[in-house]
C-alpha cells in the first residue's frame, strides 16, 4: 500500500484543525467544515483571494463527496488525540481544544499560514 500525503486523511486532519483554529470562537458542524474547507482551498473562485491554494480546477465541485468522507475519517483521530472536541447539539459540533491550538500555532509552512489567513 502506498502512503500518500496529498488527498489523505492526514492532510485533512491538518486542514480541519487549522480551520477550527481560525474559527475557534464557534463550534462547526461537519457540513460547515466541508464548506469552509472547500472555500479556503478554492478561495479565488469565491472572491477571497487572488489564487486558489489547490490550483485552478474546472472539476473542483466533483471533489465534494470525497472531501466529505475524508473529513469524517479525519475527525475521529483529532478527537481521540484531544486536538478537537466533539459536542452534541442537534448533531455533532466540533471545536479546537487548547492542545489543538498549541499544535496548529506551531505550524510554520507557507501553506498553513495562507490557509488560516483565508
- Residues in helix, %: 40-55%
C-alpha Rg, in Å? 14 Å
Instruction: Give the tally of β-strands.
Output: 2
**N/C terminus separation:** 34 Å
Q: Quote the average pLDDT.
A: 90
Helix-strand pattern: HHHEEHH
Assembly type:
single chain
Low-confidence stretches: none
Major sheet strand order: 1-2
Shape: globular
How big a fraction of the residues is strand? Answer: 5-15%
Provide the structure class.
mainly alpha
**Helix run count:** 5
**Mind describing the biggest β-sheet?**
2 strands, antiparallel
Question: How would you portray this structure in words?
Answer:
There is one protein chain. This protein has 118 residues and is mostly helical. Helix content is 50%, strand content 8%. The protein is built from five helices and two strands, in the order αααββαα. It has a two-stranded antiparallel ribbon. α1 crosses α3 and α1 crosses α5 (110-117). The longest helix is centred in the middle third of the chain and has 17 residues, at 64-80. The model has no long low-confidence stretch (mean pLDDT 90).
Amino acid at each position: 500500500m502506498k502512503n500518500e500525503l496529498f488527498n489523505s486523511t492526514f492532510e485533512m486532519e491538518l486542514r480541519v484543525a487549522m480551520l477550527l483554529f481560525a474559527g475557534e470562537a464557534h463550534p462547526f458542524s461537519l457540513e460547515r467544515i466541508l464548506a469552509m474547507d472547500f472555500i479556503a482551498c478554492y478561495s479565488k473562485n469565491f472572491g477571497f483571494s487572488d489564487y486558489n491554494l489547490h490550483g485552478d480546477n474546472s472539476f473542483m465541485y466533483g471533489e465534494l463527496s470525497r472531501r466529505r468522507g475524508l473529513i469524517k475519517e479525519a475527525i475521529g483521530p483529532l478527537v481521540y488525540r484531544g486536538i478537537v472536541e466533539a459536542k452534541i447539539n442537534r448533531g455533532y459540533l466540533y471545536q479546537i481544544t487548547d492542545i489543538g491550538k498549541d499544535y496548529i500555532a506551531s505550524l510554520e509552512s507557507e501553506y498553513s499560514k495562507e490557509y488560516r489567513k483565508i
